[in-house]
C-alpha cells in the first residue's frame, strides 16, 4: 500500500475549479514533483496535502489514516516555502528548534536535534545568526532543516528554489536530493522548472489547468509525452503541420516533402501534426532516415548549444546541435539539408490536450 | 470552525469601534437639533450661521489656512526637490528634522514664540500684521511633518533626477523644471498635504488663542463657555469639514495607497 | 551605497557642502520659528531673574502643584495610550483578519483617519453633547426609571449618580480615547499587514497551535511596532491641550494647561519656572519621539528581511 494517497481530489474556489479529479499514490521514500505552469493547480494540491486548503471533495490518506479534514498542525508534514518563511525574531538555531519547542520537547533533546540538523545542512557555524544576516541560499537550507527537525513523515517543498540565483539554485538542488536520499523521506516538490523536476524526481506529475496530464518517470515523460501539452511544456519540440500522404505506408507530407512517420491508423486520417525534438535533427543526408531540404532562416548561439531555424517549404523547423569546432553552418538564406531517424518522430492529432 | 471563531472576534472589535465612532457623533447631532423645546430643528445651526463672529472667524481661519498652505508649499517643495536632486544624502537627516515639531508641543511653541518675538528686537506681537506673520509661521511649523511627508512620498514615486535632466536637456531652466515638470507630477501629493494642513489650521486653538487672533478655534472655545446647543452644531460642522478634507484627499489619491499621517 | 555615489561626483566633499545652499531658506525658517523659540525657553529655564545660571527653576518639581500637573499629564497619557493602543490593536487586527469583509475594512480605516484627525475643541463639544450632564446619552439613560417602593422613582442608570463625571479625568480619558485608538489603527495596520501569511502557515505546519504562533512569532515580531505606536500615542496625548481646556475649562491641571496659564498670567509667580516647566515637556517629548523613531527602524529592518 502506498504511503500517501490522494483520491479523487477536487478543489474549487467560488466558481473556478483549481484542481480536478486528482489521483495519486506515493510510495515511502519516493521523490515526486508536481510540474506545470503557474495556475495549473500544483501548489493548491500541495497545500491540500499540508492541510492549508480543504478539498471540495476527495480524500488524503497517510499510512491508511484519513487526514482530509485534519488541521495542518496535526499532520506531521514538513513544508518549505518559496519565500523561506523563517521567523525573523529567532536565530537559526531557534528557528530549527521551533517545532520541537511547541511540541513541548525537553531542552536537551531540542538542542541535540538542532545540532544534528544544522550539521546536516552544514550550517553549524551560523546557529546564532538571525535570518536577515543570512544569504537566500542559507535561509532556504535553514528552512529545510527546520521542516525536517520535527521528523515529518512527508516533506513538502513549494517552489523552494525559485527566489534564488541560478548558481545557488543548482547547488541547493543537489543538496536537497542528497538530504532526501540520506533520510529516505517521502517528498513532494512543486516547481515550474522542468529541469529541476527531472533532475530530482523519481516520478513527475505534469499538470495543466487543474488536471493531471501525465504521471511517469522523467525519461518516459520526455521521450513519450502523453499529450501535445506535455510535449511542448517539457523541453523544446517541433510540432509541424503535415498532411497524410499514404496512410498505409505511414507517409505524411510537409509542404512538398515526404516524411515516414510510422503507424497512424488510430488518427483516422485527420489532419495531423508531426512531433520531433530539435536535438534529434542532424545536418546532412542520412540513408534510411527522413531527409528534408530547406533554407537557413536564423542561427542562434546559446553557448554549448547552437539553435538553427530552417525554412522547409514555408514551415520553420528548429534544430539544436552541440557547438563543436567542426560545426560548419552555412549563412542565412543558404540551402541546408537535414535528417532525423524515423523512430524519433511521432504523430499527434493536433489537439493541445 | 476556527475561522468562524476568528471572524466573530474580528466583528466584535469592529462593531465596538464603530460604536465608539458613531455614538458621540450621533449623540451630538441629535443634541444639536434640540435647541427648540419639544421639536427637532436646525435652529442651533441657524443661530451659528447667523452669528457674524462665526463667519468672520471662519473667513479668517480659512484665509490663514490658505496662506499657511502657500507658504508651506513654497518653503518645502523647493527644499525637498533640492534634496532629491542635489543632496540626497541629507534625506535621513531631513526625516529627523521634520519630525522635530512633534517634539515641541504647540503650547510650548506658542510660549516660545511669544517670549522670543514679543520682545525687542522683533516685537512682532505689537501689530496685527506681525502677529499674523507669527501665526502663519507657527502653523507652518506644526503642519510641517505632514506636508513634508506628503511631498517626500510624492517625490519618491518619481525619478526626479532623470526627469530634471531630461527637462534640462530640452532647454528648461530650474524654475521651468520645477513649475512645469515636477509640480504637475506632484499635484496629488501636494494637494493631500495641503488639505491636511488646511484642516489642521481650521481646527487649531492654541496659537490663535494665545496670540489673541479671531480664529475659528478661539471662537468655538468662546461659544463653548457661554452656549449649550451651538457648540454641538459647531462640532457637527467641524466633523463635516474634516470629513470633506479627508474625503477630497481620498478622492484625489484614489489608487495610490498613501498612508494618512495624523496628530494633534 | 551612499559612499559609492559620492565618489562618483567630482570635487567630492566641498562640492557637496556647497549644495546645501539650496536648503538655506528651510533651515533659516526652522532656526527662526522652531529652534530660537525653544532656545529662549531653554535658556530661560536655566537662568534666574537677573540672567545668571541656575538650576533653581527646576525646584518647581518640589512645588506639589506643578509636580502634580506632570503626574496627571503622564497618567492621562499613559492610560489613554494603553487603552487606545490595546483597543486600536484589536480593531486593526479585525480589519486585517484574513476573512474580514472588504467594506468593514474601508469603513474602519476611513473613520480612523477622520477620528484621529478630529480633536481639539469640537471633540470636547461632541462629548459634552453626548455624555455631559444634559447630554444625549445621559438623558437617554436617565429616562429609564422604575417606580420604587412608597411612590419613589428609581432611575438606576443616571451615570452622574454613580460617580461618573465627564468633566473629570475619567471624561478626559474617554474623550482622548476617541482620537487615540484610531491613531493606533492607522499606525499598526501596516505592521499587521507585514506579518506574512507564510509565517503562520510555517508555524502551523511545524505543529504549533494558533496561540503558540501569537506567543512565539507574531507578538515578538510585532512588539517594536506595538511599543512604538503606543509611545506615539503617549506623545500625542501628552502634548494635547485644547480638548482638556474645552472639556473641563482648565480645572484639571495638565502640564499643558499649567503652561497655558503661565503664559497668560504667571501663575507660578516666577517666569523662569514656567520655562523650566516647558523645558521638561520638551525633554519628555524628545525621549518619546526618539524611542518611537528607534523602534520604527527596528521594525522596518525585521519586516524587510
CATH superfamily annotation of chain C:
MetI-like
Shape of chain B: globular
What is the CATH-assigned architecture of chain B? Orthogonal Bundle
> Going by CATH, what is the homologous superfamily of chain B?
MetI-like
**CATH class descriptor name of chain C:** Mainly Alpha
Brief summary:
The complex is a heterotrimer of chains A (353), B (264) and C (305). Chain A has 353 residues and is α+β, with helices and mostly antiparallel strands. Chain A is built from eight helices and 20 strands.
Please characterize this protein's 3D structure.
The complex is a heterotrimer of chains A (353), B (264) and C (305). Chain A folds into two domains: 4-232, 3-Layer(aba) Sandwich (Rossmann fold); 236-341, OB fold (Dihydrolipoamide Acetyltransferase, E2P). Helices cover 24% and strands 35% of the residues of chain A. Chain A contains eight helices and 20 strands. In chain A, helix 2 crosses helix 3, helix 2 packs parallel to helix 4 and helix 3 (107-120) packs across helix 4. With 264 residues, chain B is mainly alpha-helical. Chain B has a single domain (51-252), classed as MetI-like (MetI-like fold), CATH 1.10.3720. Chain B has helices at residues 2-32, 43-50, 52-85, 91-97, 100-103, 106-117, 128-156, 160-169, 174-203, 206-210, 216-226, 230-252. In chain B, helix 7 (128-156) crosses helix 9. Chain C is an all-alpha fold and 305 residues long. Chain C has one domain: MetI-like (MetI-like fold, Orthogonal Bundle). Helices cover 72% and strands 1% of the residues of chain C. Chain C is built from 13 helices and two strands; from the N terminus they run H-H-H-H-H-H-H-E-E-H-H-H-H-H-H. In chain C, strands 1-2 form a two-stranded antiparallel ribbon. In chain C, strand 1 and strand 2 (153-154) form a beta hairpin. In chain C, helix 4 packs across helix 8 (169-193) and helix 4 crosses helix 10 (210-238). At the B-C interface, helix 1, helix 3, helix 5, helix 6 and helix 7 of B face helix 1, helix 3, helix 4, helix 5 and helix 6 of C.
Amino acid at each position: 500500500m502506498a504511503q500517501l494517497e490522494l483520491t479523487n481530489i477536487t478543489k474549487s474556489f467560488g466558481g473556478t475549479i483549481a484542481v480536478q479529479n486528482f489521483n495519486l499514490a506515493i510510495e515511502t521514500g519516493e521523490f515526486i514533483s508536481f510540474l506545470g505552469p503557474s495556475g495549473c493547480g500544483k501548489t493548491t494540491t500541495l497545500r491540500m496535502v499540508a492541510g492549508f486548503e480543504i478539498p471540495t471533495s476527495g480524500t488524503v490518506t497517510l499510512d491508511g489514516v484519513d487526514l482530509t479534514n485534519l488541521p495542518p498542525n496535526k499532520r506531521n508534514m514538513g513544508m518549505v516555502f518559496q519565500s523561506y518563511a523563517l521567523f525573523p525574531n529567532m536565530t537559526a538555531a531557534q528557528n530549527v528548534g521551533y517545532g520541537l519547542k511547541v511540541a513541548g520537547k525537553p531542552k536537551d533533546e531540542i538542542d541535540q536535534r538542532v545540532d544534528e540538523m544544522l550539521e546536516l545542512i552544514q550550517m553549524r557555524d551560523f546557529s546564532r545568526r538571525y535570518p536577515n544576516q543570512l544569504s537566500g541560499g542559507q535561509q532556504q537550507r535553514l528552512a529545510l532543516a527546520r521542516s525536517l527537525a520535527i521528523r515529518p513523515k512527508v516533506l513538502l517543498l513549494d517552489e523552494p528554489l525559485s527566489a534564488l540565483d541560478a548558481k545557488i539554485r543548482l547547488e541547493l538542488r543537489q543538496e536537497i536530493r542528497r538530504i532526501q536520499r540520506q533520510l529516505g523521506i517521502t517528498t513532494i516538490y512543486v516547481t515550474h522548472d522542468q529541469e529541476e523536476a527531472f533532475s530530482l524526481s523519481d516520478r513527475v506529475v505534469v499538470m495543466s489547468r487543474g488536471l493531471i496530464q501525465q504521471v511517469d518517470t522523467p525519461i518516459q515523460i520526455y521521450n513519450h509525452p502523453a499529450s501535445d501539452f506535455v510535449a511542448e511544456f517539457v523541453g523544446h519540440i517541433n510540432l509541424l503541420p503535415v498532411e497524410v500522404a499514404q496512410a498505409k505506408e505511414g507517409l505524411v507530407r510537409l509542404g512538398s516533402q515526404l516524411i515516414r512517420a510510422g503507424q497512424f491508423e488510430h488518427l483516422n486520417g485527420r489532419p495531423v501534426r508531426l512531433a520531433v525534438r530539435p536535438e534529434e535533427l542532424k545536418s546532412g543526408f542520412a540513408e534510411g532516415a527522413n531527409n528534408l531540404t530547406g533554407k537557413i532562416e536564423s542561427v542562434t548561439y546559446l553557448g554549448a548549444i547552437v539553435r538553427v531555424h530552417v525554412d522547409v517549404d514555408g514551415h520553420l523547423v528548429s534544430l539544436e546541435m552541440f557547438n563543436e569546432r567542426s560545426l560548419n553552418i552555412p549563412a542565412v538564406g543558404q540551402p541546408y539539408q537535414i535528417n532525423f531517424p524515423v523512430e524519433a518522430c511521432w504523430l499527434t492529432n493536433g489537439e493541445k490536450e | 470552525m476556527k475561522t468562524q471563531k476568528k471572524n466573530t472576534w474580528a466583528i466584535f472589535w469592529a462593531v465596538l469601534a464603530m460604536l465608539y465612532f458613531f455614538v458621540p457623533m450621533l449623540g451630538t447631532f441629535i443634541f444639536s437639533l434640540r435647541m427648540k423645546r419639544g421639536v427637532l430643528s436646525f435652529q442651533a445651526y441657524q443661530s451659528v450661521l447667523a452669528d457674524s463672529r462665526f463667519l468672520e472667524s471662519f473667513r479668517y481661519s480659512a484665509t490663514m489656512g490658505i496662506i499657511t498652505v502657500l507658504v508651506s508649499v513654497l518653503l518645502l517643495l523647493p527644499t525637498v526637490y533640492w534634496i532629491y536632486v542635489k543632496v540626497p544624502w541629507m534625506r535621513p537627516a531631513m526625516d529627523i528634522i521634520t519630525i522635530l515639531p512633534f517634539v515641541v508641543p504647540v503650547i510650548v511653541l506658542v510660549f516660545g514664540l511669544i517670549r522670543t518675538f514679543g520682545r525687542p528686537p522683533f516685537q512682532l506681537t505689537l501689530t496685527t500684521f506681525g502677529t499674523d506673520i507669527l501665526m502663519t509661521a507657527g502653523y507652518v511649523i506644526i503642519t510641517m511633518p505632514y506636508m513634508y511627508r506628503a511631498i517626500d512620498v510624492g517625490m519618491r514615486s518619481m525619478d526626479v533626477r532623470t526627469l530634471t535632466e531630461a527637462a534640462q536637456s530640452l532647454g528648461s531652466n530650474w524654475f521651468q523644471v520645477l513649475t512645469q515638470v515636477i509640480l504637475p507630477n506632484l499635484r496629488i501629493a501636494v494637494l493631500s498635504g495641503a488639505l491636511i494642513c488646511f484642516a489642521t489650521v481650521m481646527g487649531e486653538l492654541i496659537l490663535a488663542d494665545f496670540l489673541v487672533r479671531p480664529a475659528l478655534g478661539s471662537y468655538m472655545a468662546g461659544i463653548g463657555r457661554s452656549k449649550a446647543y451651538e457648540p454641538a452644531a459647531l462640532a457637527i460642522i467641524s466633523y463635516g469639514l474634516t470629513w470633506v478634507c479627508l474625503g477630497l484627499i481620498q478622492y484625489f489619491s484614489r489608487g495610490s495607497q498613501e498612508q494618512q499621517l495624523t496628530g494633534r | 551605497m551612499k559612499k559609492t555615489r559620492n565618489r562618483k561626483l567630482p570635487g567630492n566633499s566641498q562640492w557637496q557642502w556647497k549644495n546645501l545652499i539650496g536648503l538655506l531658506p528651510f533651515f533659516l525658517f526652522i532656526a527662526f520659528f522652531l529652534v530660537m523659540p525653544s532656545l529662549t525657553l531653554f535658556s530661560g529655564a536655566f537662568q534666574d531673574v537677573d540672567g545668571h545660571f541656575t538650576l533653581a527653576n527646576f525646584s518647581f518639581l518640589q512645588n506639589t502643584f506643578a509636580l502634580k500637573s506632570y503626574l496627571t499629564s503622564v497618567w492621562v497619557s499613559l492610560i489613554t495610550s494603553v487603552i487606545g493602543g490595546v483597543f486600536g490593536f484589536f480593531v486593526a487586527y479585525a480589519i486585517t483578519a484574513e476573512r474580514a469583509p472588504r467594506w468593514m475594512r474601508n469603513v474602519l480605516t476611513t473613520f480612523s483617519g477622520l477620528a484621529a484627525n478630529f480633536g481639539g475643541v469640537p471633540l470636547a463639544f461632541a462629548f459634552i453633547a453626548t455624555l455631559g450632564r444634559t447630554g444625549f446619552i445621559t438623558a437617554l439613560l436617565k429616562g429609564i426609571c422604575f417606580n420604587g417602593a412608597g411612590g419613589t422613582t428609581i432611575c438606576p442608570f443616571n451615570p452622574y449618580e454613580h460617580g461618573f463625571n465627564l468633566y473629570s479625568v475619567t471624561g478626559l480619558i474617554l474623550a482622548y480615547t476617541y482620537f487615540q485608538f484610531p491613531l493606533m489603527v492607522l499606525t499598526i495596520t501596516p505592521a499587521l499587514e507585514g506579518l506574512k501569511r507564510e509565517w503562520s502557515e510555517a508555524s502551523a505546519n511545524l505543529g504549533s497551535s494558533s496561540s503558540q504562533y501569537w506567543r512565539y512569532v507574531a507578538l515578538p515580531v510585532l512588539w517594536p511596532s506595538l511599543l512604538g505606536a503606543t509611545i506615539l500615542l503617549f506623545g500625542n496625548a501628552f502634548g494635547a491641550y485644547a480638548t482638556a481646556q474645552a472639556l473641563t475649562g482648565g480645572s484639571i491641571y495638565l502640564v499643558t494647561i499649567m503652561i497655558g496659564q503661565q503664559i497668560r498670567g504667571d501663575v507660578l509667580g516666577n517666569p523662569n519656572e514656567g520655562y523650566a516647566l516647558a523645558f521638561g515637556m520638551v525633554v519628555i517629548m524628545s525621549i518619546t519621539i526618539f524611542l518611537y523613531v528607534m523602534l520604527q527602524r527596528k521594525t522596518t529592518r525585521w519586516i524587510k528581511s
